[in-house]
Design a protein that fits this description.
By secondary structure, the chain is of the alpha/beta class. It has twelve helices and eleven strands. The relative contact order is 0.16.
């Protein structure tokens, strides 16, 4: 994951029900729940284990089930530390309902993989696997790039392949022209196919129709889905857990700390309804696409290993977009 780590907070108007254990991740609080040292509470325990999308799904599931369950807010998997693993495992051992995204065994050298966590559950526990929600259709030039020893780029924690290609060619300015209609449609086809393959491989619920139904509201960034998708995934997860319930909109946007530009030409190419966005927003600040491009182009000059990693990882998409170097 990128460092776009969303942790939703309760709306000022109280539109999200107050949830016990909904404070900041607190290992001492986990220990109380795991060892039953907190005040007696025999409600089934619900955990959601995954990336930056997991907490939003927990809020939605808890809101739908209300007093039928209790849930504990835990950090996304990429923030869990070795010191927290034993307490987290103790929570899992008490869990009745687990919602989990596919995570490889020994993730970051810690026993936090999906199969490893599921093996710790009580025999009566119910599990719902949900996919990692990544959708490039609305932002066909955007990407996530990882290079050893280098963090996120400046400005926003996402890369634009148009800028990365300009850096690879040694250009002083990036051409931010929107991709062709055919290229947008091909990226859409690719992202659909990738999601379908991930879902089938990991046996998750099917989020693909949710993205299509949401159209221009499907995602704020390539890995931050919009409320309609999150609500739909939470509903499907509860159905798979055997506790179907109506999942309602919480009255606030769950994963919009960062929002990416959304081109009118992209919506038109996909025949999607939606509102175009010209600028980036990140942590309360607005940045023009040109500003972010210039900042990141200069940064690539100082980090050529990121450019190399991006060219390797996204070669096929670069070809589709006509940006091959």
């Amino acid at each position: 994951m990128t460092s776009t780590r969303e942790t939703p907070e309760t709306a000022p108007d109280g539109s999200v029900p107050a949830i016990e254990d909904n404070g900041l991740p607190d290992p001492e609080r986990w220990e109380q729940v795991a060892t039953r040292e907190a005040r007696p509470d025999d409600r089934p325990l619900l955990l959601v284990h995954g990336n930056c999308q997991a907490e939003s799904l927990r809020v939605l599931c808890q809101g739908a089930l209300g007093d039928q369950v209790r849930s504990v807010r835990v950090p996304p998997v990429f923030e869990l530390t070795a010191e927290q693993v034993d307490t987290f495992h103790a929570l899992v051992a008490r869990t009745s309902f687990l919602v989990t995204q596919p995570i490889v065994d020994d993730y970051r050298d810690l026993p936090l993989g999906t199969a490893q966590i599921e093996a710790l559950l009580p025999g009566s526990a119910h599990v719902a696997r949900v996919p990692v929600l990544r959708w490039s259709a609305l932002m066909p030039t955007h990407a996530i790039v990882r290079a050893a020893g280098v963090g996120d780029p400046p400005g926003v924690p996402y890369h634009d392949l148009r800028v990365l290609a300009a850096a690879a060619r040694g250009e002083r300015e990036a051409d931010l022209s929107e991709p062709s209609r055919s290229a947008v449609r091909e990226v859409h086809r690719i992202t659909r196919e990738q999601l379908a393959v991930r879902q089938e491989h990991h046996g998750t619920v099917d989020a693909l129709p949710l993205f299509e139904d949401a159209q221009g509201e499907g995602a704020w960034t390539i890995n931050h889905p919009g409320n309609p998708v999150l609500i739909g995934v939470a509903r499907l997860a509860l159905e798979r857990l055997g506790v179907p319930a109506a999942v309602t909109d919480p009255g606030r946007v769950l994963l919009a700390t960062t929002t990416a530009p959304l081109a009118a030409s992209t919506l038109d190419a996909l025949d999607y309804a939606g509102t175009p966005r010209e600028d980036w927003t990140h942590e309360g600040r607005t940045h023009s696409a040109a500003e972010i491009a210039a900042t990141q182009l200069a940064w690539y000059g100082e980090h050529p290993q990121v450019v190399e990693a991006g060219l390797r990882r996204h070669r096929d998409t670069l070809d589709v977009l006509g940006l091959a170097v």
